[in-house]
């Protein structure tokens, strides 16, 4: 599959510094209102007046984060719907296998019961008649030789015992077959219910994916214009503004994570049980066991292409081949470099295993489907949190279970 590069650009190391940490926008509208976007006329009027330009830049940034948040929410919904659809499909497959197995077992029990009944009938006929056509009881009553009488009585007793055993076998097989048919009917009913649920989840996933795709396209269009407006207000370039914004938001995410870790540590100090739970739950990213791969609908899953992109991208941070080797090891451990890697237990997603997944929206609205956007965010996170891929890899290996 051809690798699709991200529209996002990498954050230069110089912009990801603590002084740039800004509060993350809150209470953003669920749906972006295009009428609230600053106009180019507003931008032009603000230029030349430092105070007005700063106020207009704040307005542009707010609009930018609003539209990004809307796309992030829809992409997160698409990711969750896809995972739910996969779970429903797995449940259906399991139920179908169970129903098929029960039907097969019931049919086999039917055949066993039929064979037992047939054998019982044959033995009954043998008990009643001998080979010459005379009734067995008549032969016994008219026997002149005592030895013949004893033989006939012994044969009759043996046949009677065998017949009773076969009758019991037929009865047991019949009850077994009946019970298995009842189980098969219930299993088929469950399978039918799950089939409907799977179809509904699949339709939900398609609908959510379509909604996310529309929102991503709209966000990318407006983001381009908003970054251009920021560049106009600050006499820079759109690329510079995008680098700066990503650096600011990743730094803010990292600061929020640090505060969350501090709160967790305080709670853990008060409870030994909480300390044990906190030790097993990473705060920033989470990969390893439990990773699954949801539907690849719209996702470019190309590990080799993703590594090629990352190899070219690390130069923006001044990292060389030694750091790339550590990065390969790190993301092999986390996701096998698959853009659709999902940790079902934690919700971490993508090549860098962002937790929560929607954090990557600051690198681009297409974070759910585009490996390059995921890599852009991951490199910015590694730079801000650890300074380099090798430092992140060392941390990963120092933790059990592994996380960075």
Automatic annotation (TrEMBL):
<dbReference type="InterPro" id="IPR023346">
    <property type="entry name" value="Lysozyme-like_dom_sf"/>
</dbReference>
<feature type="compositionally biased region" description="Low complexity">
    <location>
        <begin position="205"/>
        <end position="215"/>
    </location>
</feature>
<feature type="signal peptide">
    <location>
        <begin position="1"/>
        <end position="27"/>
    </location>
</feature>
<keyword id="KW-0732">Signal</keyword>
<feature type="compositionally biased region" description="Basic and acidic residues">
    <location>
        <begin position="182"/>
        <end position="204"/>
    </location>
</feature>
<feature type="compositionally biased region" description="Low complexity">
    <location>
        <begin position="98"/>
        <end position="107"/>
    </location>
</feature>
<protein>
    <recommendedName>
        <fullName>Peptidoglycan hydrolase CwlO-like protein</fullName>
    </recommendedName>
</protein>
<feature type="compositionally biased region" description="Basic and acidic residues">
    <location>
        <begin position="108"/>
        <end position="118"/>
    </location>
</feature>
<feature type="region of interest" description="Disordered">
    <location>
        <begin position="177"/>
        <end position="221"/>
    </location>
</feature>
<feature type="region of interest" description="Disordered">
    <location>
        <begin position="98"/>
        <end position="118"/>
    </location>
</feature>
């Amino acid at each position: 599959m051809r690798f699709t590069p991200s529209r996002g650009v990498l954050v230069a190391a110089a912009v990801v510094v603590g002084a740039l940490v800004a509060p993350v926008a809150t209470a953003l509208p669920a749906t972006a209102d295009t009428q609230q976007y600053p106009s180019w006329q507003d931008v032009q009027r603000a230029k030349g007046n430092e105070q007005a330009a700063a106020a207009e830049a704040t307005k542009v940034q707010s609009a930018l984060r609003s539209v990004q948040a809307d796309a992030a929410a829809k992409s997160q919904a698409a990711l969750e719907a896809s995972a739910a659809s996969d779970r429903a499909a797995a449940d259906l497959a399991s139920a179908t296998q169970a129903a098929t197995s029960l039907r097969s077992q019931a049919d086999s029990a039917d055949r066993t019961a039929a064979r037992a009944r047939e054998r019982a009938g044959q033995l009954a006929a043998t008990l009643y008649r001998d080979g010459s056509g005379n009734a067995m009881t008549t032969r016994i009553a008219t026997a002149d030789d005592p030895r013949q009488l004893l033989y006939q009585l012994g044969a009759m007793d043996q046949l009677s015992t065998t017949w009773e055993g076969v009758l019991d076998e037929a009865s047991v097989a019949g009850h077994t077959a009946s019970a298995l048919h009842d189980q098969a009917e219930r299993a088929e009913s469950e399978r039918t219910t799950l089939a409907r649920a799977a179809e509904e989840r699949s339709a939900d996933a398609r609908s959510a994916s379509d909604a996310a795709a529309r929102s991503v396209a709209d966000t990318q269009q407006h983001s381009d214009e908003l970054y251009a407006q920021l560049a106009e207000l600050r006499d820079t370039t759109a690329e510079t503004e995008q680098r700066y914004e990503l650096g600011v938001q990743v730094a803010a995410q990292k600061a929020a994570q640090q505060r969350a870790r501090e709160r967790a540590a305080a709670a853990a100090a008060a409870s030994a049980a909480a300390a044990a739970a906190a030790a097993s739950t990473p705060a920033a990213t989470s990969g390893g066991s439990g990773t699954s791969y949801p539907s690849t609908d719209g996702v470019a899953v190309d590990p080799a292409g993703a590594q090629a992109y990352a190899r070219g991208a690390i130069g923006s941070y001044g990292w060389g081949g030694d750091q790339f080797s550590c990065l390969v090891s790190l993301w092999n451990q986390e996701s096998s470099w698959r853009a659709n890697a999902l940790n079902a237990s934690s919700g971490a997603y993508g090549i860098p295993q962002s937790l929560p997944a929607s954090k990557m929206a600051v690198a681009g609205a297409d974070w759910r489907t585009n490996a390059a956007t995921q890599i852009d965010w991951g490199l910015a996170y590694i730079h801000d949190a650890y300074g380099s891929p090798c430092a992140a890899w060392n941390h990963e290996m120092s933790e059990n279970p592994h996380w960075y």
